[in-house]
Amino acid sequence: MSTWRSLDRGEPLGVVALSGPVDSAKLDEGLSVLRSWGNPVLLASNLRGRENYLAGSDDDRLGGLLELLDRGVRTFIAARGGFGATRLLDRMPWERLIADEVRFVGFSDLTAILNPLASAVVQVHGPMAAAGLSRPANADRIRDVLSGRLAGRTLFSIPAGCVLRHGAAEGVALGGNLSLLSSLMGTRWERDFSDGVVFLEEVGEPPYRLDRLLTHLRGSASFKGVKALIGGSLRACRPKSECLERWSELLLESVPETVPVIVGLPFGHGSRNLAFPVGATVAIDTRRGAVSWSV
To answer: Active-site residue among 19, 182, 201, 205?
Structure first.
């Protein structure tokens, strides 16, 4: 079972850039929010670096993480997503991260790190320092998750119009960005979704790409044994109405008819990106209209 620990008072927060280059203005807004929490905020040395479409070379981005690990950081807030996390997977200090009970907060490209690590330590899918953290509701939600205040309570309310298939289930919360999950299939980093409540979101993909990605996961038998399927934001997926309609159809056909399916919950690349624990046990009950963090 994955380990969960609440954020300690005075525990340092490390801000890392493991993916794309960071917008300085957005970063400053997010850092202001983090510093208002009262915890020390430590910054990776490459945080404002740039090398083409990355926040520095692979060595720079990994080095920024390792420096903060050596300074005792156990909770890391990613600066932003983009691309680059998968390039670091075979060099990540996995044993050390697990032994130190390290957790990351992030989404999008960070999906590639959250899911492999969540088998041992509960991670947090949510906004990043330069990607959504400056919105008060998003920031408040991350604090509630990190503090453990939401353990045993409702994570998401399920509006009636979001239920594609009714049901109740309990399993391990897994998932994140669909493209990243698909890209991990066939690698040693792919995650077994058996007994999982799988959360999926995407950005900027047309209907045929959504179809291809979900068909890949279904064809790889990744969804065998899934307890529930939950769809989140589809920001900038065009044409919008066609994407939403096709997304619902694809989610329904991706899992057996006994599996509950929800769509349209507020997580992912949308402006409202509510954090939730990855690797923790969650319960879904569509009749009660809730996704809850089980304890």
So the answer is: 201
